[in-house]
Amino acid sequence: MISRENIEKHFPGLEEGLYEELLQQGEMVHVKAGETLLRFGETIRSIILITGGLVKLYRADEHGTEFFLYNLEAGQACSLSMVCAVQHERSELMALALTDTDILKVPLSSMESWMKVYPSWYRFVLTSYRERFEEVLRTVDAIAFRQMDDRLEDYLRRQIELLGNPLRITHQDIARDLNSSREVISRLLKKMEEKDILHVERQAIYLH
Amino acid sequence: MISRENIEKHFPGLEEGLYEELLQQGEMVHVKAGETLLRFGETIRSIILITGGLVKLYRADEHGTEFFLYNLEAGQACSLSMVCAVQHERSELMALALTDTDILKVPLSSMESWMKVYPSWYRFVLTSYRERFEEVLRTVDAIAFRQMDDRLEDYLRRQIELLGNPLRITHQDIARDLNSSREVISRLLKKMEEKDILHVERQAIYLH
DNA sequence: TGCTCTTTGTGACTTTCATCACCTGATAAA
DNA sequence: TTTATCAGGTGATGAAAGTCACAAAGAGCA
After folding, report:
1. Tell me: the pLDDT tens digits for B150-174?
2. A119-145 and A148-163 are packed helices; what angle lies between their axes, rounded to 10 degrees?
3. Inter-chain contact A140–B179, Cβ cutoff 8 Å?
4. Quick one: which of A100, A133, B39, B131 is 20 to 30 A from A168 by CA?
5. Model pTM?
């Protein structure tokens, strides 16, 4: 359901007129858990704002190997879509709905005019972009400077922050996100369990 | 020397009025090779446009270990400075002048008003940002999916593209950029020499 | 010419992590 | 209830790359 309240709640601090425009020009789309929102190489046709649910953004190589970058939740925007949209560029990332997700699609054409008229939009766009950039930099830090056990703990904390404790996920899926292998993740989880950092059950990780 | 021609040459396609503003409000600063333009955690006070020379952007961890991200040359902008500047954010990166470098510093205050008035500025900012984002994503790919020999070859090609053939650099410095060790780089270079990909001399790498 | 510093070469060893093979136990479907 | 499938456990092995120790070669300079 597209509603003024919903948008105001998730995207506070915008101008009155901008809320009106978002309502008029935006199109609300519901995406089911597991569906792909954006594929690598796909031409971006609209700006995507998340109004509910959880989306995972990841990179994939030519063999289909994946690498998790960051999540987007309600109140955030696919900044790639905003910036690529300007020149009808293609997506560099894959986006997958982790839960049922509601998105507000805004046509590209709005972007440029809003940029001029609404300072809050301009700030929103640049802030989103900066935040995403920082997340990717944190990812670079992780793979460049840190080891698997460390990265795994960080990953679990971030996921639990978003999805709740316990985290319902298989070792295989964690391995895919971290570009590791199931065996390695299982072994590391067991070590962390021995250190009393967490408790592992089938399909569930309880962080202490 | 700050000159209209210089700016027009490196930043083509902007509006007349914007060139005037850049001249009036910009401050030309010369930075010597080896000097640091931006330190991690430093508050960003102005937008930085490169009008000459070569700058290296890198990430560093708490132990001072470095990791090369990308270079900026004339005609490019420190996109971090543009986006961080909006909210007086701190720098996430280190920037080092590799050669003598000329930069045009523009006060933050100009940013918001130009964004409204000059569509070309808005496009320039978003395009810069997207390009930098893509470079960082390429870096993520490299460390996530590829091995050292591959990354080294890629690194050498990119550096030679910018700095010319032969590349004058020590193995130690390459190792620092790639977060590897000198011995590993030396050995890989030797292997590449055997494969006739390049020729190694003291402080110089000739790519075939 | 000799001395020193920087850069590079090299063997031996270690660590981290991926891979393989195979097993156990839980869950669900037939 | 039996069987198939999926999640997870575990030892053995190997490859990539980091570390250590030390040698050698070039460059600069006194």
Report:
1. 999 999 999 999 999 999 999 999 9
2. 150
3. no
4. A133
5. 0.94
